[in-house]
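Help!! Second protein's tokens look totally different from the first
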Amino acid sequence: MFCGASDYVVLDYARKNKSILLTEDKDFGEWIFAHHEKEVSVILLRYLNSEFPEIIKTVSSLLNEFGDRLFGKFITIRKSRYRIREL
């Protein structure tokens, strides 16, 4: 849907639709913190291909535990751990 779209367009869509952006692209973090974005939520996945099944479990656990409280946060997920930062 957003293949080739700019980071701004993707973030704007997520903001307007109150969606959590799930991405592997570190550029979103740079954009959000450089532009002091507050009304968007991003989950950045950092993993090796062999860790993918564990990443899925971690994302699922995070969503189940925090749900709507993830809005306005930047979350980095690595194998079996995560870090949540306020925006």
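Here's the second one for comparison:
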Amino acid sequence: MQYLHAFITGAIICAFSQILIDKTKLTPARILVCYVVAGVILTACGIYQPIVDWGGAGATVPLLGFGYSLAKGVAKGVAEKGLLGVFTGGVTGAAGGIAAAIVFGFLFALLSRSPDKSSK
């Protein structure tokens, strides 16, 4: 049942993104930034945690989940270090995802071949 919940949650997020792309003049990059900010705001308001509890990876893997990770890291950082936690908590909370993106991006860059640009 967890797989179904994750699929439904991710599908709703993706469908909403597609509607934004089709019905607004927002660029995909702006939509992505809005999703990260929305994840932070929804987490700060206590709205996103129930979605994460129900949807699991369907809620934590998309960019809303990145905002969620940042907000949770900041909350934990503030609880542990006070005001300094505002600046360090977000990076600490999202460090695993950031490190994975860098490592996998590097590996795929090594394994893939870019097209020859001199043939144009």
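Reply: Different proteins will give different token patterns, so don't panic. The mean pLDDT is 88.
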